[in-house]
UniProtKB/TrEMBL annotation, chain A:
Superkingdom to which the source organism belongs: Bacteria
Keywords annotated in UniProt: Cell membrane, Membrane, Transmembrane, Transmembrane helix, Transport
Transmembrane helix as UniProt keyword: yes
Gene3D superfamilies, sorted: ABC transporter involved in vitamin B12 uptake, BtuC (1.10.3470.10)
Keyword hit for Transport: yes
GO biological process terms, semicolon-separated: siderophore-iron import into cell
CDD domains in the cross-refs: TM_ABC_iron-siderophores_like
Listed InterPro entries: ABC_BtuC-like (IPR037294), ABC_transptr_permease_BtuC (IPR000522)
One GO molecular-function entry: transmembrane transporter activity
Residue intervals passing through the bilayer: 90-108, 115-138, 144-168, 189-210, 235-262, 274-291, 303-323
Family statement drawn from the similarity comment of this UniProt entry: Belongs to the binding-protein-dependent transport system permease family. FecCD subfamily.
Protein name stated in the entry: Iron complex transport system permease protein
SUPFAM superfamilies for the chain: ABC transporter involved in vitamin B12 uptake, BtuC
Lineage: Bacteria, Pseudomonadati, Pseudomonadota, Alphaproteobacteria, Rhodobacterales
UniProtKB/TrEMBL annotation, chain B:
Pfam families: ABC_tran (PF00005)
SMART domains assigned to the protein according to its UniProt record, in alphabetical order: AAA (SM00382)
Keywords: ATP-binding, Cell membrane, Ion transport, Iron, Iron transport, Membrane, Nucleotide-binding, Transport
Family of this protein: Belongs to the ABC transporter superfamily.
Top-level taxon: Bacteria
Membrane topology designation: Peripheral membrane protein
PANTHER family per record: IRON(3+)-HYDROXAMATE IMPORT ATP-BINDING PROTEIN FHUC
Name of this chain's protein: Iron complex transport system ATP-binding protein
InterPro entries: AAA+_ATPase, ABC_transporter-like_ATP-bd, P-loop_NTPase, Siderophore_ABC-ATPase
Any one GO MF annotation of this record: ATP hydrolysis activity
GO biological process, one term: iron ion transport
Length: 327, 267
């Protein structure tokens, strides 16, 4: 491997580290970057260290995992569907996961933390299958806007059900209201350690699937002739996407447009090959959510803007731009 | 030699192959032996089954009956990867991923030779470089595909199939939508690859192109093989009338001696 090939991963690593230190230092009690590093290494002021280790580090880890997971999921979906607009939010997975979590907790009393990613996964899969079903029923296999329209319809339907459940059970609505807007506030280490294996398994699967997706981008026939079991790779990709989406939702609620914004930004820098695009999206996704979460805690401090609101504010113009360029 | 029954890796044998596409019987008990190390052209009218036959050999379509053997092994016994190490395909309209560079496309040909463990090697780089040399696209290596002309792009796709290093190369109408001079250039390239020992099976729309370049021509009609042989053997007025419904004369090219089909156009 040449030295030049090491520059992009080194730059991404540095970027990630800076975003992490910035995130950990920001808040009601601000900690300068040097002290953050000292605290991370186990030294320095004990109050700084306590704030960082107990309150901010779980939140930062959650932001990194959720951002990486949603970005990887978006890149995988764009590769498997050959649709540049594919991402967990637009294709109904986030709405499905959110409804499943709300229904599971308020209707069926499934509030045990280990069930959270399971509920989210069931919901994400159901949402994806509904969008796929509506797209197939519309007979529009090739148009890239048909699944987006199906996703909008399915999302509206599922979100209505979520709102209905919240109106019936107002007590849990208070707890879930912030979570439903996509927020990392109050994230504690037990939840992070619970979800991390899911997220890491999904990310590992994404890295393994990535080179197959490049082959798939040449069309099903060409991919088949290059030895890719097209159907099996699509099924495995769906499973990975569901697991990734579920772990992000379990950590931070439904975060809109992350799976669209980050892979397309990564494409501008790293090109179209998925073997590079997927790892780059994972790293950039972690950076993106760290930055969004830090900004969300800064702009109207001491109050917070939910991370999901910021990702939507950034992501919607990206979506419009993509429509202009690609559709 | 003791191994009289030794199998050639480039041999394709089709036995009793039947394929339905919806309600249509696209292939009806087709038997075919494709000559190894030569170019065979599959021709016929639209819907005669020539593309279906190619796609079934390429394992994109599954037969309802019969079997295909390549290099003596039944396709049913080969994994997708093992099949892709023996046979490459250039589909009729492959997708051109936006922004992909020529070299990255050609590199995809190495995919069936890579595993989870076995990664990139200098040998792969050498094979990719050779494939680009052979198709004369090395000078475009760093350029995005969409910046090239149709013929240049087609040569890049052929380079990708060459990087697959298979004894068999299947092509589905590789000259469609190209200018005549570019069609000749692509066919000349395929003829050279066949002379170098590859088995080439190519679906063609243009009869005279098949007659000018192919070693053998297989003519299909209504899901069956109607005639097969050298261009001289099958390019005859009665066969053309039967297979294509064409009222044509056949003359010999004064320079190459190859048959040329001249449809009667006088009112």
């Amino acid at each position: 491997m040449s030295v030049r090939a090491l520059i992009p991963p080194a730059a991404l690593g540095l970027l990630l580290l800076s975003a992490l230190v910035w995130h950990l230092g920001t808040g009601a009690h601000s900690v300068p970057p040097g002290a953050v590093v000292t605290a991370l290494l186990g030294g320095g002021d004990s109050y700084d260290a306590a704030v960082i280790a107990e309150i901010r580090l779980p939140r930062a880890l959650g932001a990194m995992l959720a951002g990486a997971a949603l970005s990887a999921a978006g890149a995988l979906m764009q590769g498997a569907t050959r649709n540049p607009l594919a991402e967990p939010g637009l294709f109904g997975l986030l709405a499905g996961a959110a409804l499943a979590v709300v229904a599971g907790q308020s209707v069926f009393g499934l509030t045990a933390p280990p069930l959270l990613p399971v509920l989210a996964a069931v919901g994400a899969l159901a949402g994806a299958l509904m969008v796929w079903g509506v797209t197939a029923a519309a007979g529009g296999g090739t148009g890239m806007l048909t699944p987006v329209l199906a996703g909008a319809a399915v999302t509206a339907f599922l979100a209505a059900l979520t709102t209905l459940l919240n109106l019936i059970d107002e007590r849990s609505f208070e707890d879930l209201r912030v979570w439903l807007s996509g927020s990392l506030a109050g994230l504690r280490l037990p939840v992070v350690t619970l979800v991390a294996p899911w997220a890491l398994a999904g990310l590992a699967a994404a890295l393994v699937l990535a080179p197959k997706l490049t082959v798939l981008s040449l069309g099903d026939e060409a991919a088949h002739a290059l030895g890719v079991a097209v159907g099996r790779i699509r099924a495995l990709t769906l499973i990975a996407v569901v697991v990734l989406t579920a772990s992000a939702v379990a950590l931070a609620g439904p975060l809109a447009f992350v799976g669209l914004t980050v892979p397309h930004a990564a494409r501008l820098i790293f090109g179209t090959g998925y073997a590079r695009l997927v790892p780059a999206s994972i790293a950039l996704g972690a950076v993106y959510l760290l930055a969004a979460d830090t900004a969300g805690r800064t702009v109207i401090a001491p109050a917070e803007v939910s991370t999901g609101i910021l990702t939507a504010l950034v992501g919607a113009p990206v979506f419009v731009l993509l429509l202009r360029v690609r559709a | 030699m003791a191994e009289a029954a030794q199998v050639t890796p480039g041999r394709i044998a089709v036995r009793g192959l039947s394929v339905r596409r919806g309600e249509v019987r696209a292939l009806r008990e087709v038997d075919l032996d494709v000559a190894p190390g030569a170019m065979t052209a599959l021709v016929g009218r639209n819907g005669c089954g020539k593309s279906t036959l190619l796609k079934t050999i390429a394992r994109i379509l599954r037969p309802d009956a019969g079997r295909v053997e390549i290099g003596g092994a039944s396709l049913d016994d080969l994994s997708p990867r093992a099949a892709a190490q023996r046979m490459a395909l250039l589909p009729q309209s492959p997708i051109l991923p936006e922004g992909m560079r020529v070299r990255d496309l050609v590199a995809q040909g190495r995919h069936p030779h890579r595993g989870l463990v076995r990664h990139w090697s200098p040998e792969d780089d050498a094979i990719i470089a050779r494939a680009m040399e052979a198709t004369d696209v090395a000078q475009f290596a760093g350029r995005p595909l969409e910046s090239l002309s149709g013929g240049q792009r087609q040569r890049c796709w052929i380079a990708m199939t060459l990087a697959q290093e298979t004894p068999i190369l299947l092509l589905d109408e590789p000259t469609t939508y190209l200018d005549l001079s570019v069609q000749l250039e692509i066919m000349g390239l395929l003829a050279r690859l066949a002379r170098e020992g590859r088995t080439i099976l190519v679906v063609l729309h243009e009869l005279n192109l098949a007659a000018a370049f192919a070693d053998r021509i297989v003519m299909m009609r209504e899901g069956r093989i109607d005639a097969a042989g050298t261009p001289e053997e099958v390019m005859t007025a009665p066969v053309l009338a039967r297979v294509f419904g064409l009222d044509a004369r056949v003359i010999a090219d004064p320079e190459t001696g190859r048959p040329v089909c001249l449809p009667r156009t006088a009112a």
